[in-house]
Amino acid sequence: MTKPEDPTRVLIFDTTLRDGEQSPGISLNTQEKLEIAQQLARLGVDIIEAGFPITSPGDFEAVQTISRTVEGPVIAGLARTHVADIDAAWNAVKDATRPRIHTFISTSDIHIQYQLQTTRDDVKGQARAAVAHAKEYVDDVEFSPMDATRADIEFTAEVCQIAIDEGATTINIPDTVGYTMPHEYTACLERLYELVPDLRDIVLSVHCHDDLGLAVANSFAGLLAGARQVECAINGIGERAGNASLEEIVMLLHTRSADVGLRSGVVTREIARTSRMVSRLTGYPVQPNKAVVGRNAFAHESGIHQDGVLKERTTYEIMDATTVGLEANSIVLGKHSGRHALQQALADLGFELTGQGLNTAFRRFKEIADKKKHVTAMDLEALVTDELREEIAAYQLEWFDVEASTRRPPHATVGIRTPDGDEVTGSFTGDGPVDAIFRAINAATGSDARLREFRVDAVTGGQDALGETSVVLEVGGVSGSGQGVSTDILEAAARAYVRALSNALRRRGIGDGSGAPDGGAFMAEAEEATAEAASRQPVRTP
Amino acid sequence: MTKPEDPTRVLIFDTTLRDGEQSPGISLNTQEKLEIAQQLARLGVDIIEAGFPITSPGDFEAVQTISRTVEGPVIAGLARTHVADIDAAWNAVKDATRPRIHTFISTSDIHIQYQLQTTRDDVKGQARAAVAHAKEYVDDVEFSPMDATRADIEFTAEVCQIAIDEGATTINIPDTVGYTMPHEYTACLERLYELVPDLRDIVLSVHCHDDLGLAVANSFAGLLAGARQVECAINGIGERAGNASLEEIVMLLHTRSADVGLRSGVVTREIARTSRMVSRLTGYPVQPNKAVVGRNAFAHESGIHQDGVLKERTTYEIMDATTVGLEANSIVLGKHSGRHALQQALADLGFELTGQGLNTAFRRFKEIADKKKHVTAMDLEALVTDELREEIAAYQLEWFDVEASTRRPPHATVGIRTPDGDEVTGSFTGDGPVDAIFRAINAATGSDARLREFRVDAVTGGQDALGETSVVLEVGGVSGSGQGVSTDILEAAARAYVRALSNALRRRGIGDGSGAPDGGAFMAEAEEATAEAASRQPVRTP
């Protein structure tokens, strides 16, 4: 990707599916990653970092599927400096209209000494070889000197110069551990421009972590210093305290454009929906006081009528909720709405459903509409997302009965449809009704899954709200996550558990080599490389 | 409060109970506010802004109770420039060892014109009169020119000079709408120092909102520019996107102290516990990727073993989890632990329980320990907090029975103990088991409460986790929130609903004038002033 002609244009590099997906407890399957990538394309991001293909066959498959399907953004795959990493990244992204390889190696002495256990000279050699190898495949190559903010800046500059000499078109300066401060990061980038004048001819990028609450401010300082790509993630998810929040960076540039003079290409009206989708699929809640996308971020959303805002909106609001798409919760459908109305409403939300998919969605819609007077756009999003997950579930919840009381232990019985189509049943008396259901599902499926996390949220407020549950469980050392939606919290919990179990078993299957995607020979090679790499050094990232 | 001798000392002004409590859906009662204030004192904050006494008798009572009980920090009460506001603030804080009155008025033309509907001259007059009146009561007076970052800086400077001339000991520059940027805020404060040299003799304070994700960075820029008080809130709660996060500011100063040369007096090891308590009592979740206090903020908490961290901790960690008190989840008690062990463990957590309180806690502990192999410090915190709430509940859940199934609508029956000691029962067939329980409680108590929000979290992970639920409901125009803890999600939900209902009814009672705290004549006056003020202009704050 060449540097944009327009000096005010900031490229948005979304790493929700790579750095974001590295967060503990998140385990998206290919279908879910594809769904997020398609929404990121609607959102108008410039680059999607779709994954880290060498790390697992599942990651490879997801990057490949996204590369083959999603139109619009550049699709990037991450790679260490190893040949096998770069080969895997290329094989995963090569079918994209605009593929990118993103390779990285640490330049800080603490990483070189303790993590890589090598020398500065070796790092220079690895960086040179990696960029050169990537350039054999594709023109669009990004290079990151990991932990740059804690590195000797002269050495980092040398390595960046090498990467540029070999043809890197983007140089990204990561604050890997979230340590830097705005004035310090500004000074760092200004010094790099002095030491490496060639940086002015390519795209300089920033990648900041939020450990001290400064990810957005540091990224913004980088843009003011001349960077024109910002690496960020929806809802600020990512390693530890996460990455800079895409929505905060974008709305900062948008709201203060008159003073700052920079702009992104993001369709801001898609922000709220993207945030909800990522929260739902990752199981990571967005706190109510989160900037831009928290449910209280816009005061008039909260039901507190403010005299000031009524007199003049700008007295207390610097952004309009409609700008980020927050009006989407207006009522759209009722119990008498028909199939065509549903199809139209879904199309407005970006979901093109026909045939069997529409039939299934309509059946679920009717079930919900029977119980809930008004079905909102947010409900529909939750339902359709729920339906998408249904297709890939190996086990299916058929029915359950639960008796719960303060006066005796709760008892649950469940019926589960197996992948072979048989119905199996199981019962359990547990500590609570949810516990009883989960253990009854274990009994029915003969699994020894253990619950790691369990969360319930109302999708929309009010007495007849849909409940949305998230489950993370572990079975045989493999974790899986699942979500469920229903007006019945126990049913939502049971659905989520069955899906999490299916996902974990499916991941274990892929790990065993069964269920692997096409490109068998390459995959076998990639798996060997992964195993070898894992034994030699851990897979760590900017 | 005079300016500290030590130029490196930053005063931490906590507004969790004032700006934080203004967040939609949060409705803490006096007991809960006191509990948080006591924890803030353990945390070592310098100033607690305990509330906005004129706004309601409940707020007045809470500020007064905290002033009379909590030792250590300065206790501040907020007031507009009106005489009645300042009188109410003084009456609420006067019993504190070190009381402060904090008064404010907008200096931005947009607020003066649309909200206050007055003139700049009138604003100057009001500011002068307010500070002068407050000084008649107490030496420690803080003044804030609201919306200062969008105001004409020369005019703001004039108003600040007036406040200083009248004796204000702290001047706070609020970024009320979260609009400013670090370099802009720096320039604003530097210009104020030029225009008002007297600012160097008092404490300059910063108060930043997070609408664009810059609250911490802006506050930090203010400190670098010379401010020595920072207004912030636990978990960053507050109006809209909230205030600067106390924990992020404190850990930024702590982690980068060698480079920044500033320090707070906060006992960092109390941070995690304070965060959990505020999240639990407000019902506001902390997202997993929240800096410092999110459950993923420290990688080794997440269960992902990082080779780099194992080789050398500092390769990927800039803070140690024990510094913020995150080791507290080690196992402390089991089912065979006795009353003395429980009392000791609670004392270690800062809860001094004896007599009946200890008996009740021990009974609940035994119930939980029967179901859960290991009881952790976090479980104990949840339980004790639960017990504290029990004391003020007007209704009590006695028992319930629920039948839920995918094959017929769920049915619930509940028994509730009324404030008079009678047991009433109610039944309902609902959309889901939780819905059925909530409506059965309505039927039993004869209330028409409507659910506004419902949330469930596991207090600790794993199959036998305690479930913690939060309910916000509305009855007759008054909202109330409640929490419940149990290994049974339905029981936790029922407890939370009953408490929320009790709190809402209690608040409605206070609003009616019944149940008002002592100082009846003053309270009547304050209520009149509130009603009068409400009809004239809304109560809005920095």
SSE topology sketch:
The structure is a homodimer of 542-residue chains.
Chain A (H helix, E strand, L loop, with lengths): L10 E4 L15 H14 L3 E5 L5 H13 L4 E6 L3 H11 L5 E8 L2 H7 L4 H18 L3 E6 L6 H13 L4 E6 L6 H14 L7 E6 L6 H10 L4 E4 L13 H10 L1 H4 L10 H12 L24 H5 L19 E4 L4 H10 L6 H17 L2 E3 H14 L5 E10 L5 E7 L5 E7 L3 H13 L4 E9 L8 E9 L2 E9 L2 H23 L8 H17 L6
Parallel strand pairs in A: 1-2, 1-8, 2-3, 3-4, 4-5, 5-6, 6-7, 7-8
Antiparallel strand pairs in A: 9-10, 11-12, 12-13, 14-15, 15-16
Helix pairs in contact in A: 1-2, 1-11, 2-3, 3-5, 3-18, 5-6, 6-7, 7-8, 11-15, 14-15, 16-17
Which structural category fits the helices and strands of chain A?
alpha/beta
Spatial extent as radius of gyration of chain A: 24 Å
Contiguous helical run count of chain A: 18
Uncertain ranges of chain A: 300-305, 510-540
Account of the 3D structure:
- The structure is a homodimer of 542-residue chains.
- By secondary structure, chain A is an alpha/beta fold.
- Chain A has 18 helices and 16 strands.
- In chain A, the strands form four sheets. The first copy, chain A, has an eight-stranded parallel barrel with strand order 1-2-3-4-5-6-7-8, surrounded by eight helices. A three-stranded antiparallel β-sheet of chain A has the order 11-12-13.
- In chain A, helix 6 crosses helix 7.
- Chain A starts with 10 loop residues before the first strand and ends in a 6-residue tail after the last helix.
- At the A-B interface, helix 4, helix 7, helix 8, helix 9 and helix 12 of A face helix 4, helix 7, helix 8, helix 9 and helix 12 of B.
